[in-house]
Amino acid sequence: MHENNIRIGRLLGDAYEAWQRGAYAALAESGFADIRPAHSPVLRFVGEQGARVVDLAEQARMTKQSMSYLVSALEQSGYVSLTADPDDGRARLVHLTAKGNQARDVLIGHSLALEERLAARIGKDRVEDLRELLAEATGPWLP
Amino acid sequence: MHENNIRIGRLLGDAYEAWQRGAYAALAESGFADIRPAHSPVLRFVGEQGARVVDLAEQARMTKQSMSYLVSALEQSGYVSLTADPDDGRARLVHLTAKGNQARDVLIGHSLALEERLAARIGKDRVEDLRELLAEATGPWLP
DNA sequence: GCCACTAGTCAGATAATCTGTCTATATTGG
DNA sequence: CCAATATAGACAGATTATCTGACTAGTGGC
User: How many domains does chain B have?
Assistant: First the structure.
């Protein structure tokens, strides 16, 4: 009866791209056009106390050079600031500025709005179901 | 009781990246290391009869120049061939070669293997559930 | 206090996208 | 049936986001 053909990987990719397009288009319309998907690991992994570039890089699974490039771009556009690490003279701590926090909050807001639109279509229970299933599909069970 | 915090967008991104890493690492180990995620829309949208670059570009939501770049790379590595379109003297038809079909089949095989691993963990019913939910999360209900 | 390790930068390469321009062919309206 | 317009793709060049390799400066164990 049901079409059981489309693979999970493809569905994941399509869903993620649609979600990302929606969220970042809304973010751009909110006045943060200079934040692109590539910058999101910075917003995501910088905590309240700031983080070192090398730690951001590891969490984002990229080289420190690549992370440094992203951090520099966000620093130039005023979303993060860099301060000396008091505990390590080699390191610098990346912090979100007020503008950076605002951008992160607006992005989260748009993302939550998408969740609400989905909940309006399929119901809150199904959204929670999806949340659980996605968490299980991501776990550490790969070769 | 339940942690209801992690947003769907983030979960989608994490799941997709894990899935893609797994599938393309396996593809590389199978001897197709020169096929990268960026090439996947070509494998995906070229049908049996071949497709024009401009149509591939539209389906992949990119410019024809970008798609042309991807097609050229795959042509040089022998995964696709280009023939004149009999119905349109301006156009060329992109076809998968035997090697290209093989690569696509191997990639699909690895993707299905991941689905089976997931089914072994959470059950086939839950996988079907995920499939349906992802299809609903991707539909044309965005602004 | 030396020596191995680590944080970050500098330099350069590559991949994957974009915009703009151009040519050749197709299509369509008078 | 042809002239105007539209389309397919190629060419040139720029940008973004990643990589590797080499270097500098600071850390910390012994």
Answer: 1
